[in-house]
Amino acid sequence: MARWPLLVLLGAAVGCGGGGAAPAVPVVDTGAAFLNDPKPLRFHSARFELTVPFPDGHGWKIDDHRGPLLVATHAATGATLTLGISVEPELMNRQRCEAAAHTRGLVRDADLQTVADEVIVGPGPYDTHITVAALPAAAAHRVVSGHVFLFGAHMKKCLFAHYETLEREGEDEAALSARLAVARLQMLGGIRVEAFDRPDLPRGL
């Protein structure tokens, strides 16, 4: 943990977010359109009945049709977001949903080191565990990639999201930390599940 002080500071920021205003995101030069978008575009997924905000929305390529999960890529910041909702045969909680994600290979790298953990209620009534993690390089004081995972449970449904951003040549920890903060606070923190916002849609199974 001491190797990546800026990532630790990020962990402190997202770990104590609570219900107040979102912590300020550090501003760096790289990926400015992603970091400083005051009004992210909201993408609507008809099959998952949810919306996700995408800072620098026009810079994302989003595929919500060809695979079991929505997959979005952002070339300017070397980032990928995967997201989906699964219906399970039994009542679930966040621990079971997280275990199912590992079993299905959605969390692949065993060397990830946790920077921050938090348990929240949301989106809607989902019981959710959010983890911020980093993959360190073999060389000291370097991070190869940063990750934000969301594991949510509601009745027989599991909500999964994974934001991954790669360290690019010439970048420092501040750039990576800033992107992780935006992903946690604006993207994953801004997911809205329509079944809990629209009274005409069924709630639960």
Q: What does this protein structure show overall?
A:
With 205 residues, the chain is an alpha+beta fold. The chain has one domain: Mog1/PsbP, alpha/beta/alpha sandwich (Protein Transport Mog1p, Chain A, 3-Layer(aba) Sandwich), CATH 3.40.1000.10. The chain is 20% helix and 35% strand. The chain is built from 4 helices and 10 strands. It has a 7-stranded antiparallel sheet with strand order 3-4-5-9-8-7-6, sandwiched between helices. Strands 1-2-10 form a 3-stranded antiparallel sheet, with no helix packed on it. A hairpin with a 4-residue loop joins β1 and β2. The longest helix is centred in the last third of the chain and has 15 residues. The relative contact order is 0.22. The N terminus and C terminus are likely disordered.
List keywords for this structure.
20% helix, disordered N terminus, alpha+beta, 7-stranded antiparallel sheet, Protein Transport Mog1p, Chain A, 3-stranded antiparallel sheet, 205 residues
Annotated CATH homologous superfamily: Mog1/PsbP, alpha/beta/alpha sandwich
Distance between the termini: 42 Å
CATH topology descriptor: Protein Transport Mog1p, Chain A
CATH architecture field: 3-Layer(aba) Sandwich
Number of helical regions: 4
List low-confidence stretches.
1-6, 16-30, 198-205
Share of helical residues: 10-25%
Please give the number of β-strands.
Answer: 10
What portion of the residues fall into strands of 2 or more residues? 25-35%
Rounded mean pLDDT score: 83
Physical arrangement of strands within the biggest beta sheet: 3-4-5-9-8-7-6
Structural class of the secondary structure composition? Answer: alpha+beta
Largest sheet: 7 strands, antiparallel
Number of domains: 1
CATH C-level category: Alpha Beta
Q: Judging from the principal axes of the Cα atoms, what is the shape?
A: globular
What is Rg? 16 Å
- State the order of secondary-structure elements, H for helix, E for strand: HHEEEEEHEEEEHE
